[in-house]
Amino acid sequence: MTNLQEGDKAPVFKGKDQHGKTVSLTDFKGKRVVLYFYPKDMTPGCTAQACNLRDNYDVLLKKGYVVVGVSTDSEQSHQKFIEKYDLPFTLLADEDHKIVNQYGVFGEKKFMGKVYDGIHRTTFLINENGVIDHIISKPDTKNHTEEILELWEKKQ
Predict the structure, then answer these.
(1) Exposed end of the chain (fewer CB within 10 Å): N or C?
(2) From the candidates 46, 67, 105, 125, which is the catalytic residue?
(3) What is d(CA 78, CA 90) in angstroms, rounded to the nearest whole number?
(4) CA atoms within 13 A on the CB side of 5
């Protein structure tokens, strides 16, 4: 769905984290960023994905990655999600849809015969220079870290 492609410069986002602190892509200059977009806090697929990243967080850190999640949920919703599942990474509250629109991951979806607008689960692997190395269009929520690491290994 996104118009972005591997090799493109990643759009510089700015958003509020779960504590109301402004976070920008520029904060991570010189680091690899796992920027993952997910539909909704506390839902089964999103929880599985977040917990997979949590359970493998140390491995991702050792490989030089920073993990940032984005959804259109509120800061308060993110706080509850983080507390309930002990998530060690930043979640951005994109209630005004600026970031999801920058990355082209918000749009029409279909579920059980219903058509609605929402976030298309997508992960962008951004390198130290702010360039998109990989786009994972439909992440495997239960094995997401493995997908990330596999792509990272191919890049070496």
Answers:
(1) C
(2) 46
(3) 9
(4) 1
91 alpha carbon, distance to own chain's centre: 8
Note if 46 is an active site residue: yes
**Overall pTM > 0.85:** yes
Q: Average pLDDT across each block of 10 residues of the chain; the chain has 156 residues. List them in order.
A: 90 95 95 96 96 97 95 96 97 97 92 87 96 95 94 72
DSSP state of 105: -
In what helix (H) or strand (E) does residue 126 lie, and over which residues does it extend?
A: strand 122-126
Token pair of 4 as six digits: 């972005």
In contact, 40 and 46? CB cutoff 8 Å? yes
